[in-house]
Specification:
Blueprint: E1 4-6, E2 10-13, E3 19-21, H1 36-44, H2 49-56, H3 60-72, H4 90-103
Helix pairs in contact: 1-2, 2-3
């Protein structure tokens, strides 16, 4: 008999990942948990964490979390540059500061 986890909107079969919900608007999913080997293979063959997330159907945040846990356990994942979410225009910022200093 498959194990089932019940929440407030339905039941998820933890063996197959099948969800059967009774609430209006629920989505049936067959999402499975990504194992260590699958994660490592995807990570090592990707150029970015976003690519890993896309390959495995997970969020980039989850990729960072899993990567951190594996590194903490001394698993030697390849180095991957962190993506900068905001590119700073240093010259423009310094121009604003200079303008403000001249106006005071």
């Amino acid at each position: 008999m498959a194990k089932a986890k019940k929440d407030n909107i339905g039941v998820t079969d933890t063996t197959s990942g099948e969800f059967s919900g009774s609430a209006e608007g629920t989505i049936k999913t067959t999402k499975k948990r990504t194992g260590m080997e699958e994660f490592i293979r995807a990570f090592q063959s990707s150029n970015s964490r976003k690519e890993v997330a896309t390959k495995l159907g997970m969020t980039v945040s989850n990729v960072y979390t899993r990567e951190k846990a594996y590194r903490k356990s001394n698993i030697n994942l390849k180095d991957m540059a962190r993506a900068s979410s905001n590119k700073l225009n240093v010259d423009a910022a310094n121009a604003i500061i200079a303008e403000m200093a001249n106006n005071s």
